[in-house]
Amino acid sequence: MGDLAKIFKAYDVRGVVPDELDEPTAEAVGAAFVEVTGAGSVVVAHDMRESSPLLADAFIRGARSRRADVVHAGLGSTDLLYYASGSLGLPGVMFTASHNPARYNGMKMCRSGAVPIGGDTGLTEIRDRAAQLVGVTATPSGSLIEKDLLKGYADHLRSLVDLRGIRPLKVVVDAGNGMGGHTVPAVFEGLPIELTPLYFELDGTFPNHEANPLEPQNLVDLQRAVVDNGADIGLAFDGDADRCWVIDERGESVSPSAITALVATRELAKYPGSTIIHNLITSLGVPEIVREHGGVPVRTRVGHSFIKAEMARSGAVFGGEHSAHYYFRDFWFADSGLLAAMHVLAALGEQERPLSQVVGAYSRYHASGEINSQVSDQAEALRRVREAFEGRGEPDELDGLTVRGDGWWFNLRPSNTEPLLRLNAEAADESKMTAIRDEVLAIVGKVSE
Q: Are residues 9 and 144 in the same domain?
């Protein structure tokens, strides 16, 4: 039996297979999911990990044992599951551990229309009911329909961003042996794109590198391939392909803040005056550019549940995060790495400049990147930093401590799961950013001693 208390997180289910997550646990969660949501039908998809089909099948048995009909989409990315939930009008479950190592697996759950299920919107109740149902078996009575949704997903994305008229582009894609290797060819088929694939073989052991583009070492092969092939752009996806990282023609990383600003301007051109969501550690340039293009920027806490909730509340057309998650009203307020990539390809292919020049207009500040410090007393460290910067900037505590001065800011926030403080700093002047960063780290370091 798996450890339900350990594997149910704030927004999803994730754990080591089989020690923490096994088939009896998945079956119990399937039954509990139907009971708690009241679903008459459920759509299920899974990634390429070795354990994913088995866990998905177990979940399906549990769901059918509670008389729910199941649409089994088989292999898919997480945003394909969101497409399935939205287009079919069904609650859904995706079996994936995203960018986690091979020994992990998990579940991302949503209600009909891709509305996320988190700890305060049903996930806790599903956990508690599943704990009562582990080992309880019942004969499946709901129907099972296998349905290939890849073409419908690809057609839907292509209807949202028309790439047929762009200039020919040389594109290198690193799928990291994850689900991008399944979805990218379907979406790019027939477009004026010369595709160079890296690690498109579906392999949940991740033999080449971890499928986590936020770690610089996982981008090295893509950066080299872009330069060696004289490509216009490189794209890197995580394991379940809901995140996308962009590399320019020089082999340099493009900040997700710049991508957020770029896509925001395109969505504002389509929907003038709309709201754009950004979290509090995206660049100052994002709200500036949104305002300059007639939009309304709204700042949220870090975390996809906060972004999605605020998007639904405000009717925002788009939302972006520093973690390379991008959310679209036209995609049921859900995130899609490939849809964001298509917006970048459109912006690049509709004119003649190289990508570095295109995104340069959206990069106005110097950022530290996220720096983690291990701290035993997070509250004391935050108190000392707040005291040190008193009177030097405007503080707020939306998520940790943010202090904003003239052309600079920093945010210092605690991790929810580890004894860490995460620092992000930014300034118009690189030396100012460096000075702010080093001052905060020095204070935090003294608490750690």
A: yes
